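Colleagues,

Please find the record for the two-part complex below.
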Amino acid sequence: MADSVWIPGRASAVLASTNTPRHTAIVRVTHWITTLCFFALLVSGIEIVISHPRFYWGETGSVLTPALFELPIPASRSSVHTGYGFVWPDHNGWSRYLHFQAAWIAVLTGLLYAVSGLFTRHFRENLLPAGADLSWSALSSVIANHLRFKSPGEAEAWSYNVLQRLTYLLVIFVLFPLVIWTGLAMSPAIASAFPAVVTVFGGQQSARTIHFFVSVFLLLFLLVHIVMVWLAGFRNRMRAMITGRAGAHKEHA
Amino acid sequence: MSNLSRRKLITTGLAATAGASGLAVAARLALRHGLIPPDHGGIYGPGETLTYAFQRMLTRHSLAREFPRSQISKTPFANVVDPLGEEFKRLQAGAFTGWRLAVDGMVARPASFSLAELKSYPSRNQITHLACEEGWSFIAEWTGVPLSHLLHLVGILPQARYVVYFSIQHDWWDSVDMADALHPQTLVTYGMNGGELPVGHGGPIRLRVPRQLGYKNVKYITRLTVTDSMKGFGQGLGSVSPEGGYAWYAGI
């Protein structure tokens, strides 16, 4: 099943069939739509945070209550005393419009990806780690290879190693759902129809704080993802995600 | 390329046709059921329309969360408001006895209510959350007359679709659809935390729409207009908010 990474015979067999794309069309299209949405959500999310760079726990919190923590940046509202003596211009209006529009596109794209991933066995075949790969010895050897910046073998141009699999599963099935959920928990209308959406987090401000941290984790994932693609061979990995062709022969050129 | 078989072409064509007609049907249904917001145009129109339509379908009758007294915020933040004009100061000097709330538009009996009259109607107390789009929030107890009570007094006409509300501050007005206007928790609020509504929080009267964010809760309201269309009100986008770049619907 998903243990092809460590079996060279399997990888070269796949290489031989040049018609098989490295990534299916649906994976490639949803990947790039998600990328666009991610940047839109990131930029607009930063703009929204700038209007109130203070975080709280529980149901409520404002400039008149103590903060859980504050970001050391100037705000776009004069009511927030950041100590910089400088107020950014207000960009919350279009940022909120863009944030929700990008969120809609990302959610619909994510649904398409998830449903097709179940039907095409994408999750089971490409993302679920093999049981043997989850042993401590197997995991530590992969981690050691990463720490030594060892170049990935040819097989890895065609399949994900166990760390990649676990990371992608975490992002797809934990971080993305959680960021959507905490986002909805900040909606007074959604909270009116489904109070449990917010009460499970202990309040609207708690949901906002978790939303922020999950976004930070997603941003960290993005940065590591880009660095790893760069180290593994930027051109080939980009071609694989754009055209589907892996071109593993030139991988380490 | 033999990949493009006839079967594939036909299925793709059928799927595209089904998708396009599905969208067309959805748009017609949305229009009929009042799920298209006044600011549905422009590049952010699709996202705004999806948010409004879905939230309106899910929350037409849902009640905003109400909290126990122990959760009332000790220091509710009133936010900064633009300086209040001469007219406001004159009414304030008279303890707001001269304040009037006019109701006009598509109503059978246009009327104007004094503060004392508003206070004489059946009142409702509720402890609800007020969240600002910036991210901060507080919980307070609000006292007022349900907007639906006033609308029934004046007799809204069947074609009514929006209630527009105007602040004494001339560049501040907004509107809600009938689901929010007739909602039992939408209050013409004159009391807060057991006392008069403080001026900083919108006193003498503020419209509380607890299922939407703070900026829909316009302070110092003097006039309500019932209408079937937002055309003719400012740029026709439903409120002054979209004219400044903010969404008309603020349920999230």
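Chain A touches chain B at residues 48-49, 51-52, 54, 56, 59-65, 77-79, 92-94, 96-98, 100-105, 183-184, 186-193, 195, 198, 204-205, 208 (CB under 8 Å).

Comments are welcome before we finalize the supplementary table.
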